[in-house]
From TrEMBL, chains A, B:
It comes from the Bacteria. This is PLP-dependent aminotransferase family protein. GO terms for molecular function: transaminase activity. Keywords: Aminotransferase, DNA-binding, Pyridoxal phosphate, Transcription, Transcription regulation, Transferase.
Amino acid sequence: MDTATAPALLYEQIAQHYLGAIRSGALQPGARMPSVRTLTQLHSVSLSTALQACRWLEDQGWLEARPRAGYYVRRPQRMALPPSSEPPARIDATQYLGIHERVSDFIARCELHPVRVNFANAYGSPDAYPAAALTRAATHVLRQHPDLLVTPVPPHGDAGFRSVLARRALDAGMRLTPDDIVVTHGCTEAMNLALRAVTQPGDMVAVESPTFFGLLQILQSLGLRSIEIPTSPQTGISVEALSLALQTQPDIRAVVVVPHFQNPLGSVMPDANKAALAALCAQHDVALIEDDTYAALGDDATPLRALKSWDDHGAIIHCASLHKILAPGMRLGWISGGRWHARIRMLKYAQSRPNDTLAQRSVADYLGSAAYDRHLARLRRLLRTRREQVAEAIATHFPAGTRLTVPHGGMLLWLQLPPLRRNATVFETALREGVRIAPGHIFSNSERYNDYIRLNSSIPFDTQAVSALQRLAEIVRSQLA
Amino acid sequence: MDTATAPALLYEQIAQHYLGAIRSGALQPGARMPSVRTLTQLHSVSLSTALQACRWLEDQGWLEARPRAGYYVRRPQRMALPPSSEPPARIDATQYLGIHERVSDFIARCELHPVRVNFANAYGSPDAYPAAALTRAATHVLRQHPDLLVTPVPPHGDAGFRSVLARRALDAGMRLTPDDIVVTHGCTEAMNLALRAVTQPGDMVAVESPTFFGLLQILQSLGLRSIEIPTSPQTGISVEALSLALQTQPDIRAVVVVPHFQNPLGSVMPDANKAALAALCAQHDVALIEDDTYAALGDDATPLRALKSWDDHGAIIHCASLHKILAPGMRLGWISGGRWHARIRMLKYAQSRPNDTLAQRSVADYLGSAAYDRHLARLRRLLRTRREQVAEAIATHFPAGTRLTVPHGGMLLWLQLPPLRRNATVFETALREGVRIAPGHIFSNSERYNDYIRLNSSIPFDTQAVSALQRLAEIVRSQLA
Ligand SMILES: Cc1ncc(COP(=O)(O)O)c(C=O)c1O
Ligand SMILES: Cc1ncc(COP(=O)(O)O)c(C=O)c1O
């Protein structure tokens, strides 16, 4: 609003300003209108102009005056417009230039349709996690620390949380002190920090193929190029292929690997491969970034050795989080940065400051307790049961030619479908019907996985899930080449 | 540890591994040692080798066996080493290459010494905020939503929180819908996203001089160059000087401004300057990024009009947070990205995923209530009282030649000292004595502010604070040129 125009129209301008706010939903029915005094100050107008604006809005039926309380937005039936939001199906890919249009388009598109059955995410369903224990713990922390929410957060994360993470890391063969750990907003922020610490825009990063689409998006948004290394559904990244790439591509500065229950494949690297990979990266002086967010989810409770446990030169960065294994709603992750640790600490400070304390304190005691081990045991069983149920339903309903390696842990199934006419149609048709899946083409920059889809097998296996799978199978059938 | 060496030494290697963990603090006194069964799997050894390792550690006094519970780390008096941490005063600036060595060095150095009196941060002290009300609200949310902590977080932030932010934004003259807002981890993350959305590495960004050191660090860590525009302690950035810069520097892609209670100056831009600035940036097609985190802290309760309220072309990005005004411990901020909003949403997804819900829900109701307005009124009075007390103490104790413009809001005082021999000595001497201040040189890439310091005037004005100010004054005196 331009306050410099003719005073005769001023009250109308002010009224129009607030009318727009009411129409757009910024001022919702029942909300208090700024006081007349506030209006005079905000718009540099006289009391009578401000009053005139309010009276006009009242006359038009937009406001109601409440005695001694000022003006309130009425709850009018005739024009109850919802807040504007983006119209369905109008996604402008140019908005995502440099943020991986293919992946961004998938993420944005998912939001356009209400979801009934979600096979697209990579978290267990809420019933798989110890909600009551976490809620109790958080309530307890709030009671114990009455000033927690108003006290500036400590650097690098809560000391108690980092201690218990260091202790748990021992089970994966890593010897870390609490100071070797920085708490982050999930594995996603950890990966951003790791990549920012060891690369410059323009550098090349070797990744598994197929790989977690979030990683492809992170890489491109940081101006990094990626090179995809063949990866086996059984044993993970091919160390031989990577070795060749390192010999021929001198621009590779980092390798990112998900050693355990890789997303989307579900592969687990044998220890011998992990040792060879660590040695190969050390030999080429290339940073090795380990994303180990699924490690605890094996059907077999045997602890898996982290890549980082082979780190002799501080050249392996370990990233992980609690979203898959303990608390999808808490956004807690961490990073141990090897020789780049001080750098990563500072990048974390510059990027988002240290994490707030409540979530960290809330999980710290639980993570140190035997209850956590019991939760993991239950979670493993539940994931396994549901995975087998979904795999069986797929075998029953999907067309001949569908292929599937069922992993020995985690919650993801990577389905190879028979050749399709138009891959994107399967995703889009299902989406419109409220069934979300992750289409194969977002797991790579190539076209290699166009006939694949990734399904979350951890959702409750109820009639809704089964009929969604059947419907999916029909859609696939309708698109067979 | 290499598992391929002679079996005769295996148990010793394993024992040494865990001994190292105990010594480094990764396995702390009282912690449970991994079970013998776990050791066999983790190190691929036989049961007897694993047992031998544990027995050796027990013999050496490091572990104790508890019946049916396994081995635990003893609480030995003789070698209770604390976890390793970086040795004081050994800061290696090369770690911070590209993350603003000057600012990073300040941040890292602050951590090396325990703090008694902290004048260096930019938050009110905990007693300035409604701790009990926030704690009650968080407890209430946890009770109302038993599955909150285990449910994946919604995109862009909690709808209720974004609604109330949109409503409150009206008081600052902005007409936003909830969809125009993305919740972030503080203003820091918001600034990162804004800059990433509108610039490419190598671009130039115009900033106030002096400016918030965190911004200088963000800019350099993103590979951006900065150009410093003269800024008045009274009226903020010089629009004339910026205009000149825009004419002569075609690489400028964005301007970042703190219009209200600028950090460190405390300046407030008059509305005419804000309008002129908005018009100037529009004319040059340069993004204008507004960091408005202090707006509510004026001595006078008059709402201040956000720069964004002059946004006709979607070219102004508004960033703010709750740390200064409501909850230093909650790390809640937000961004409204104008024409780059879809891009910013996606960058937020790629950088750290949406914020967790608990904190947002906890503050949403409070922000919408009259209790929040009462809190702000109290906070304003408290900040003003303390600011005047500290300013008076400075006038009493600091040497002649000290200059100070006392702002009309906020919590920061920007002191110009008489010329000093070695500026850094004041900061370092005070730091060693447990008194943290922010030295002037971190607020610029130039040497212009070497004789300045920034003090937080909001800490309780008790005898400790007064004697710290007196001591500071002495240190300054000892360094006069
Ligand atoms: C391999 C991998 N890394 C990282 C993430 C994201 O982790 P977070 O939710 O902790 O940010 C995922 C989640 O899908 C993942 O599968
Ligand atoms: C101008 C300015 N912007 C941003 C910040 C950081 O804000 P937040 O704590 O919300 O990340 C500060 C805090 O010192 C500040 O003074």
